[in-house]
Amino acid sequence: MGFNGIIGHQNIITALESVLNSGKIGHAYLFAGPSGAGKDTIARLFAMRLLCKENKDECNCESCQKLKMDVHPDFHVITPAGSSIKIEQLRELQQKAYLSSVLGGKKVFYFPEAERLTDAAANSFLKILEESPSGVVFLFTAVRLDNLLGTIRSRCQIYNLFKVPLAEIEQGLIKRGFTVEEASRRVHLSQGLPGLALQTDDDRVETKREPVILEELLQLDLIQIFKLIDTMEKWDREDVLRQLREWEIQLRSSITEAADRNIRLRNLKIIDKMSQAIKMCEYNVNIRLLLDELLISIKLIEC
Question: Of 11, 156, 166, 218, which residue is most buried, by most CB within 10 angstroms?
Answer without folding.
Answer: 156
